[in-house]
Amino acid sequence: MTRDQWGALQNTLQETVGRNNYVNWIKPLEYSGVDDGVARFLVPTTFLGNYVSQNFGDLILYQMSARGADVRRIEFAVPTTPIAEPKAAPAARPVPAKTTQRSDAMLSAPLDERFTFDSFIVGKPNELAHAASQRVAEGGAVTFNPLFLYGGVGLGKTHLMHAIAWKLKTDRPDLNVLYLSAEQFMYRFVQALRDKKMMDFKELFRSVDVLMVDDVQFIAGKDSTQEEFFHTFNALVDQNKQIIISADRAPGEIKDMENRIKSRLQSGLIVDLHPTDYELRLGILQSKVLKQQASYPDLEMDDGVLEFLAHRITSNVRVLEGALTRLFAFASLVGKPINMELTQDCLADVIRASERKITVEEIQRKVAEHYNIRLSDMIGPKRLRAFARPRQVAMWLCKKLTTRSLPEIGRRFGGRDHTTVMHGVKRIEELRLADPHIAEDIEILRRSLEG
Ligand SMILES: Nc1ncnc2c1ncn2[C@@H]1O[C@H](COP(=O)(O)OP(=O)(O)OP(=O)(O)O)[C@@H](O)[C@H]1O
């Protein structure tokens, strides 16, 4: 695909994703070409690349294929020369030009216009996070500070944060609301250091009324950024300004985060977004399908397809959305209505990945590899700590990731009693909170097993 063809394709993309999304996310992409089935783009930041990949990757892929390009994957890379920040496209945002605009225009990351409270579907797994977010979005007296939202990938943390920001910007334009990712916080901090503008940096951050930092786990292990974040945090809390933080795990479980920051993060309200259940998935699909139908008005969809998807794709909302986008793009490409057969055909890989059942054997093998011990020692009778701890980790993972009962798990661990398994699971539950190394081990193992 030539650069000109990419230029033409951008117009189509703009029609599909809307002007704001286009300006914020697609326009900053610099097309480098297709090489061995991989379409490559330069992006100003990793954040932008990740965002585009997660939200528009499938769409771009299909549009390129539809134009005859042999593309199977898209890759984004940040150039090694100085990075230009993505344009915040102030004109694209329905924010009245207020006096707050100074720091807002300079600092706030663009908000996705799709991420509002109206488009957020509430179900049991996210009702608490939603309620807490709405409370904060009312902009009244600060009752809990910070609001800490956490949960697995693609469960709606960013969506809720943007929704809070949109609502505050509309209802309380007097407030200076700042939303950015932890990565952007670091980027701006480093830039201020480099340009010897730390006073400006501090002043700007301390002048906000509401600070929202997404994916805070990113600054773990980055010492001076953490330090600066801590000071910013304290200065704002002291002034009774609202802070909202998101992360992929609870504050206590963020490895390489200083203890004083962890305890600060724990001092407000902590709410987690649980994995979706069937009803929530169906609700989300029903709302998203309406948007797809607006882009593809001629496509018909059979009854039962959404229920099928809600049953079969259980991973996260982003995957669910991606599946729907792909389904519509595919059906429109082949010019067929969306029925069960086409759905199974088009989404075979997604469904298979979601169906994959994790087995006890697989867990034992992975854990043994991770701790570098023999499988026989993990299952065998030895009580040495070097074997017992991995064994308990494996038992804990079996309890969490499989549907096996405690006696069944015990049997597969060399015929141990169910009370031994129960004890092991409990011990790891405690250690996960107390020992960041164990917490990290578990996270790595869980990801590799679920991946
Ligand atoms: N309850 C919901 N209702 C509607 N859409 C949702 C809901 N939850 C998530 N989504 C959608 O799923 C996608 C992923 O959500 P989001 O980006 O907020 O996830 P996240 O938790 O921030 O994930 P990550 O950890 O990867 O940043 C978004 O497009 C979002 O709009």
Key terms for this structure?
single chain; 451 residues; alpha/beta; GMP Synthetase, Chain A, domain 3; Rossmann fold; Helicase, Ruva Protein, domain 3; 4 domains; five-stranded parallel sheet; three-stranded mixed sheet; 9% strand; globular; binds adenosine-5'-triphosphate
Write structural notes for this entry.
- With 451 residues, the protein is of the alpha/beta class.
- It folds into four domains: 3-77, DnaA, N-terminal domain (GMP Synthetase, Chain A, domain 3); 90-273, Rossmann fold; 278-355, Helicase, Ruva Protein, domain 3, CATH 1.10.8.60; 360-450, DnaA protein, C-terminal DNA-binding domain (Chromosomal Replication Initiator Protein Dnaa, Chain: A, Orthogonal Bundle).
- The protein contains 21 helices and eight strands.
- It has a five-stranded parallel beta sheet, sandwiched between helices. It has a three-stranded mixed beta sheet with strand order 1-2-3, covered by helices on one side.
- A hairpin with a 2-residue loop joins strand 1 (30-35) and strand 2.
- Helix 3 runs parallel beside helix 13 (317-334).
- The two termini are 32 Å apart.
- Adenosine-5'-triphosphate binds next to helix 6 and helix 13.
- GO terms for molecular function: ATP binding; DNA replication origin binding; lipid binding.
- It is found in: Cytoplasm.
- Residues 1-89 are annotated as: Domain I, interacts with DnaA modulators.
Report the bound ligands by name, code or SMILES.
adenosine-5'-triphosphate
Provide the CATH top-level class of the largest domain.
Answer: Alpha Beta
**Alpha plus pi helix count:** 21
- Largest sheet, order of strands side by side? 5-6-7-4-8
Distance between the ends: 32 Å
What is the H-and-E element order?
HHEEHEHHEHEHHEHEHEHHHHHHHHHHH
**Total number of beta strands:** 8
Question: Could you estimate the helical fraction of the residues in percent?
Answer: 55-70%
- The CATH homologous superfamily of the largest domain is called P-loop containing nucleotide triphosphate hydrolases
**Major pleated sheet:** 5 strands, parallel
